[in-house]
Amino acid sequence: MNCNQHAAETEPKSTVETIQTEILRRICFLDYQPGDQLKEAELAAEFGVSRTPVRDAISRISHLGLVETRNGVGTVVVALTAAKIRHVYDMRLELAALIGTMSPCAITDADRHAGRELLQNAQALSHDFDPRRYVEVNHRLHRLIASLIGNSALKSFWWQTYYQAASTWYRVGNQMGPEVALALVAELEDINTALENNDTAAVGFIQRTHIGYGYQRIKTHLLSPEA
Q: Is 75 in a helix, a strand, or coil?
């Protein structure tokens, strides 16, 4: 399928989308910790807007279960429960298998170049690990995978579950260190083989496999045995 796979990155975002993306990034990188309050007035001043687009952005994020409004407190960042994490990963496993079957975009030379660059970044992390750079490489990998998805509804759900899961990677990375970088290297080696062979379906199945591995690490290091 021929599709403009980078349109989402090149088209200008609305003010609400820009604010939403930045708040989500801060949650994913744990710049905003569970329990931190999102203050509309401060965010409005930071972005140079009225409170309305800030409120709209926070409302969108609330649907992901990452923030909630508490009486007498305001809007605060919340950690996903073990059950919610399980539900998110169950969904991610199902979505990954659809990447190569629901209107996939053609793999380009730019995609292959991006994959090789990400592999080099992951290899560097395995020798000099930094949890923040680990999350950044994961984010860029996710953006590459999303660019191969031609079905807009599937892409939307893929991004949604990514944001719900991302902060858990940072927490696992802090605990496991270079071990998670080695796992990322293995994932990117598989992804690069699929890209070189123009096999989008294989990309989806590789993602499904490594999402499963990632969830096992989360259960081992973050969740109680009965979760």
A: strand
pLDDT, residue 76, reads: 95
Inter-CA distances, 68 with 14, 89, 135, 200, Å: 23, 21, 24, 37
C-alpha separations of 114 from 37, 67, 71, 103 in Å: 36, 33, 46, 21
Rounded to whole angstroms, the Cα distance separating 37 from 73 reads 8
Q: Which structural domains are found in the chain, ordered by start? A: 7-77 (1.10.10.10), 82-221 (1.20.120.530)
Contacts of 170 (CB under 8 A, 6+ apart): 28, 29, 30, 131, 132, 134, 135
Chain-centroid distance, C-alpha 34: 18
Q: Which of 36, 10, 4 is nearest to 149 (CA)?
A: 4
Find the angle CA(97)-CA(166)-CA(60) to the nearest 5 degrees. Answer: 95
Instruction: Give the residue carrying structure tokens 């007035």.
Output: 41
Q: What is the pLDDT of residue 204?
A: 95
The parts of the chain modelled with pLDDT lower than 50 are 5-12, 227
Instruction: Give the separation between CA 169 and CA 192, rounded to whole angstroms.
Output: 22
Which stretches of the chain are assigned E, i.e. beta strand? 37-38, 67-70, 74-77
- Please name every residue paired with 77 in a beta bridge, in sequence order, or none if there are none: 67
Task: Identify the burial level of 63 via C-beta atoms within 10 angstroms of its C-beta, where 0-12 means exposed, 13-18 middle and 19 or more buried.
Answer: exposed
By C-alpha distance, which of 119, 191, 131 is closest to 167? 131
Q: What is the pLDDT of residues 133-161, one digit of tens each?
A: 998 999 999 999 999 999 999 999 999 89
